[in-house]
Amino acid sequence: MPTLPGKEALIIELLAGAGGRGERFGLELVTASKGRLKRGTVYVTLGRMEEKGFVTSRLEDAPPDAGGLPRRVYQVTALGRRVYEAWSHVARLLPEFAR
Fold first, then answer.
1. In the β-sheet with 23-25, what is the strand arrangement from edge to edge?
2. Virtual CA dihedral for 43, 48, 22, 86, nearest 10 degrees?
3. What letter does residue 70 receive in the DSSP assignment?
4. 73 in Cβ contact with 58 (< 8 Å)
5. 6-61+71-93 is classed in which CATH architecture?
6. 3-state class (DSSP) for residue 91
7. The whole model's pTM is what?
8. CB-count burial class (<10 Å; 0-12, 13-18, 19+) for 97
9. Which residues of 32-46 are buried (b: 16+ CB within 10 A; e: fewer)?
10. Disulfide: which of 19, 35, 63, 76 matches 15 by Cβ 3.0-4.6 Å?
């Protein structure tokens, strides 16, 4: 069974409950985590999760009147949800296993 580190589990929780839209950008995840995710690690973690197939990303369309670069937004995949559900189930049954 794949492991699911705490930061990855938290990101999946935040993406799955993203107010019905199902996607967020990295700094939005940092804010929503209330200090549990840091700016310096969130993108590294998201990149690792994308390599595993737990999340996907796309570049957001930039508003035509705004300057700057488009942001990358992330969404949890079906695989990510299944791994999270399985890991949560095991953690509830065997709390010492999930440490």
1. 23-25, 72-76, 55-59
2. -140
3. P
4. yes
5. Orthogonal Bundle (1.10)
6. helix
7. 0.83
8. exposed
9. bbeeebeeeebeebb
10. 76
> Bridge-partner residues for 86, per DSSP?
none
How far is it, in rounded angstroms, from Cα 82 to Cα 37?
22
Dist. CA 60–CA 37, nearest whole Å: 22
Tokens of 55: 């999340």
What is the C-alpha to C-alpha distance for residues 6 and 12, in angstroms, rounded to an integer?
A: 10
What residues contact residue 64 under an 8 Å CB cut-off, 6+ apart?
none
- By the 8 A CB rule, do 75 and 56 touch? yes
pLDDT in tens, 33-57: 999 999 989 999 999 999 999 999 9
